[in-house]
């Protein structure tokens, strides 16, 4: 999930970025596409990563699951909305964000389409919305007039908070009285304990380190609302998909298989592999984040997108008057056609090479 404030270096000019130690990338025009390619004919996909972490597509690259694409790191993202905005404006080829942010971007006219789920919540990986034990906050109505700390506006934390308040029976007027405050994830626990905010969204390493210190408990969690659920997707521009369908297909099949590898592989093996990848890429990253890795958080085999994972946020935006009713349709915002776990290449519950997986 792209939710942390991470270091980022500026996007480099294409001509300067295409030189690599082993392969010289050259710009070619193939079939109407202006995509960069390597000397051996692979399509270059520029992306923004996450410091101290390994994304499924970086894992896919390491495992040798790609045959037609070459990944090119352009720095680290600051947030999901910023990441997909960079993709929409052709600074990178693809990005990942919360599905509500994807819907909002598409409704605003950005020609993007989701091709694969990128993050979610399961029993091991989720976001909790924590309060202080002594705060006396026990329900949604206690938040009227209070402050909720979120990592960025217009993304996962805001949507989930407002959806929970709605489900708890608050009117739209009452929900508007709950103030959302942008707080960097690294500062959320401190802000909560020092009473600068009343609720803090904590996930991953921030939740794992805050809970043992005591004094905090979750008022609700995202998995309490929807259960195990895919919340975000990878998006490409529609014109890029049309002009470079083989490259997108290779990205999706490899990343879907790497996602499945993560879903089936014991944690210790995953952490060892991530450590190997981070050390190999040489970006001077802190490996301590890996101590807190629990799962990918995607509950659906191969990260196949479900209509409901998009529609629920269309409904939310329409209900709040942020998107005109009927302006966007879920089926037009995503495709599973390239995913081997959805298009018949593999059985839906098979392993990363299509092998039968024994039921647990």
Protein architecture, described:
47% of the residues are buried. α2 crosses α11 and α4 (99-107) crosses α13 (307-319). Mean pLDDT is 90; it is low at 1-32. The chain contains 14 helices and twelve strands. It has helices at residues 14-17, 56-63, 80-88, 99-107, 156-167, 172-175, 185-193, 204-210, 222-226, 238-243, 245-264, 267-281, 307-319, 330-333; strands at 25-27, 36-38, 43-49, 69-76, 94-98, 112-121, 127-132, 147-150, 179-182, 199-203, 216-221, 229-237. A five-stranded mixed sheet has the order 9-8-10-7-11, sandwiched between helices. Strands 5-12-6 form a three-stranded antiparallel sheet. A hairpin with an 8-residue loop joins β1 and β2.
The outline comes out as globular
Q: What is the share of helical residues? A: 25-40%
Average residue pLDDT:
90
The poorly predicted ranges are 1-32
N/C terminus separation: 27 Å
Strand order of the largest sheet: 9-8-10-7-11
Largest sheet, strands/sense/barrel: 5 strands, mixed
Structural class: alpha/beta
Number of strands: 12
Helix and strand run: HEEEHEHEHEEEHHEHEHEHEHHHHH
Number of helices: 14
């Amino acid at each position: 999930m792209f939710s942390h404030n991470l270091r980022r270096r500026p996007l480099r000019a294409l001509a300067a970025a295409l030189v690599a130690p082993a392969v010289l990338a050259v710009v070619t025009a193939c079939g109407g596409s202006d995509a960069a390619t390597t000397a051996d004919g692979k399509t270059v996909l520029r992306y923004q990563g996450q410091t101290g972490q390994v994304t499924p597509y970086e894992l896919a690259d390491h495992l040798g699951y790609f045959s037609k694409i070459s990944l090119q790191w352009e720095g680290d993202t600051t947030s999901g909305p910023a990441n997909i905005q960079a993709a929409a404006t052709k600074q990178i080829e693809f990005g990942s964000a919360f599905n509500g942010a994807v819907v909002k971007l598409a409704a605003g006219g950005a020609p993007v389409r989701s091709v694969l789920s990128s993050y979610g919540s399961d029993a091991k990986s989720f976001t909790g919305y924590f309060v202080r034990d002594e705060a006396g906050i026990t329900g949604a109505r206690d938040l009227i007039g209070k402050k909720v700390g979120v990592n960025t506006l217009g993304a996962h934390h805001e949507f989930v908070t407002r959806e929970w308040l709605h489900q708890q029976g608050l009117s739209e007027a009452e929900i508007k009285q709950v103030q959302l405050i942008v707080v960097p994830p690294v500062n959320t626990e401190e802000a909560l304990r020092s009473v600068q905010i009343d609720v803090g969204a904590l996930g991953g390493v921030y939740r794992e380190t805050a809970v043992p210190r005591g004094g905090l408990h979750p008022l609700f969690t995202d998995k309490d609302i929807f259960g195990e659920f895919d919340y975000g997707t990878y998006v490409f521009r529609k014109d890029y998909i049309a002009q470079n369908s083989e490259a997108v297909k290779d990205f999706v099949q490899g990343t879907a298989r790497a996602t499945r590898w993560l879903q089936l592989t014991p944690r210790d093996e995953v952490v060892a592999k991530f450590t190997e990848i981070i050390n190999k890429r040489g970006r001077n990253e802190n490996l301590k984040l890996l101590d807190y890795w629990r799962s990918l958080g995607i509950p659906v085999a191969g990260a196949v997108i479900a209509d409901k994972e998009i529609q629920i946020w269309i409904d939310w935006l329409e209900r709040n008057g942020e998107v005109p009713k009927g302006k966007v349709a879920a089926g037009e915002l995503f495709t599973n056609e390239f995913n081997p776990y959805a298009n018949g290449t593999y059985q839906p519950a098979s392993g990363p090479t299509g092998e039968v997986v024994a039921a647990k």
